Amino acid sequence: MDNKEFILKSQEVAMRSFGAALKSGRVPHAYLLDGEEGTPLFETATLMAKSLLCDHPDPYCDMTCTTCRRIDAGNYHDLVVMDGGEGTLNKESVKDLIENFSKSPLEKKGKLVYIIHLAEKLTDEAENSLLKFLEEPSKNTTAILTTNNIARILPTIRSRCEILRLVLPNKLEIMDLAIKEGFSQEDAFLLAPFHGTVSSLKETSASEEYRSAKQALMIHLQHKDEGEGLYFYYQNKISALIKQKKAALLFLSLLIEYGHSLLYMNMDKDLPLLAYHIYGKDHPREDPSRIIFLANEAMGAINANVAVALSLDHLAYSLIDTWTI
Q1: Which of 5, 125, 166, 237 is the most buried (most CB within 10 A)?
Q2: If we measure between CA atoms, which residue out of 229, 169, 183 comes closest to residue 43?
Q3: Torsions phi, psi for 112 (to 5 deg)
Q4: What is the spatial distance between Cα 160 and Cα 18, in angstroms, rounded to a whole number?
């Protein structure tokens, strides 16, 4: 199953609305895709952009035309992508976008499309500049914004967009598709909760950050019942593996998912056999709710630019108190 087919299936309601607009020729000048972490926001936004620009839409893109291939290669001049996943989006970036889109389209399609992924990463100044741009849309321009936190988007921006709510795909389906495409069962199980498509899962699985995060998780699991001994391994092993923000956030996400699985185990809920293979069949003396809370707390600290080493050291010390009697 390719990305197009998977998105059309997993995001049926949102894509049906978009498809109706394509067929009628009355496409809104701005969309806002809203979905929690793990939804295929960027992949859906890209599919929508391709469908607007494709040489042979039906009404969605055919994925094979010259335009679709150029978009995949990142060299289609009338599509601009700003990715908040790579850092804060500042006023200068939006000003450059506005300047570029004040000119006539360069491609024969005659349409200008821009994607702002994770628009909640826009600074206040950048949001205000974007708002002015949205207030005076040109007929040939379409904006596609995405967000994991719609409450962080200015109400005045939200009011100028058609909001499409995306849903989390079934993680077991993602896992099964990944395994069928040759991924290890372990990697497919660990990464499926955080990815809306197999292609994004593949990208993460090949990264050095994931390898470090996975190894750190395995150290935690191996020494989870050692109390103060676990703190030693965090200080001397995990701290050496997890130094960068991206690896730290991925490790904490894996730890949170482990906590969720422990909750299900404690409630005697059925889990995939892989969960017991990876996490162990014996219920450890850890409090899963406390693990989830502490990992989320560390994630918030790191996102607030607290040093990774300091955040993980505090996490390790606090984990000693997660043991249940």
Answers
A1: 166
A2: 169
A3: -110, 130
A4: 16
